[in-house]
Write a structure and sequence with these properties.
313 residues; alpha/beta; Rossmann fold; 2 domains; seven-stranded mixed β-sheet; five-stranded parallel β-sheet; 8 helices
Length: 313
């Protein structure tokens, strides 16, 4: 009889349990059993409660703050390696620490490279992620990286709005490539916001490149953190004559009072994915689930089928 690879198993880090349950449901198998033992000093130890010997395992966990979330992913990968899993796929919808992807001043770390090295050292044989802060981070790995794009979720949603005179805008120069990719697919114009920062999360100056007068503007970006840039960009676009401003942003980091800022802003709507669970629900924030996307890609990985159709950008 020809050899048939055993069914894959899906496990969740605790920070992404809700998303992992949805992914497993779309994949068509139950979520695997994991126990997290916690010690009095805050240390913890994950353990798999079923055999994974010779199996392909998918470990799902976004690595947003706190650092315990990254540590849990590393420990689960190590446990899977020591339990003789054949393939260990780290599914990281939001790849934290990605904003530190280069030395932009003396004597600072390149945290994204360090995280990549730790994942490999722990025993990951593949990484599946979505909308990295910089595409070049894929080059930090010596293992396969499947870099998915949330545009496969956002573009159908934008089309469903049936808006006229759409302009795709980027809140900074670094997102110009992303904005052009959306605009090309939607046959829309592009506007770019040029900004300067005094320090992280604080914009000192912002100017618009492009015409938005009478247009329905859609801002696209990989993550929203404090939301100050988003709110400032929204006000600037409206001052320049935009008819409306919406935002499609993949990862809802939403630190501090970000949700309050968004609710009190002139932004019509913020559309995000569930790569990071929302701390507080908001009438202005719509969540599109990335679970079907990850489930299909994971299924194709396991059955050695192409996933190229999931790369719109």
């Amino acid at each position: 009889m020809p050899y048939q690879e055993a069914e894959a198993k899906i496990f969740a880090c605790s920070q992404s349990l809700a998303l992992a349950e949805k992914i497993a449901r779309h994949y068509g198998i139950p979520l695997g059993k994991v126990d997290i033992q916690r010690f009095a000093d805050g240390e913890f130890r994950p353990s798999f409660k079923e055999s994974i010997r010779g199996r392909r395992v998918f470990i799902i966990g976004s690595t947003f703050a706190p650092t315990d979330n990254l540590m849990q992913m590393l420990l689960m990968i190590d446990a899977a390696k020591r339990a003789s899993a054949q393939y260990i796929n780290a599914v990281i919808p939001y790849f934290g620490w990605a904003r530190q992807d280069r030395k932009d001043e003396p004597r600072v770390p390149i945290a994204a490279k360090l995280v990549a090295s730790m994942l490999e050292t722990a025993g990951a044989s593949r990484v599946v992620t979505m909308d990295l802060h910089a595409d070049a981070i894929q080059g930090f790995f010596e293992i396969p990286v499947d870099h998915l794009y949330a545009s496969t979720l956002f573009i159908p949603y934008i089309q469903s709005l049936n808006l006229d005179n759409i302009v795709i805008a980027s809140p900074d120069m670094g997102g110009a490539k992303r904005a052009h990719a959306y605009a090309k697919f939607l046959k829309a114009e592009v506007a770019i916001s040029y900004k300067q920062r005094l320090r992280p999360n604080e914009v000192s100056y912002m100017e618009l490149i492009g015409d938005v007068k009478g247009k329905n503007v859609i801002l696209v970006d990989d993550l929203v953190d404090t939301a100050r840039t988003l709110v400032k960009a929204t006000d600037m676009l409206l001052e320049k004559g935009a008819e409306s401003v919406r935002a499609c942003i993949t990862h809802p980091v939403l630190s501090g009072n970000a949700i309050e800022l968004i609710e009190n802003s002139n932004l019509k709507e913020l559309v995000v994915t569930d790569s990071i669970p929302l701390k507080v629900l908001s009438k202005k924030i719509k969540v599109l689930s990335c679970a079907p996307l990850f489930a299909e890609v994971m299924h194709n990985i396991h059955s050695h089928e192409s996933i190229s159709k999931k790369f719109i950008m």
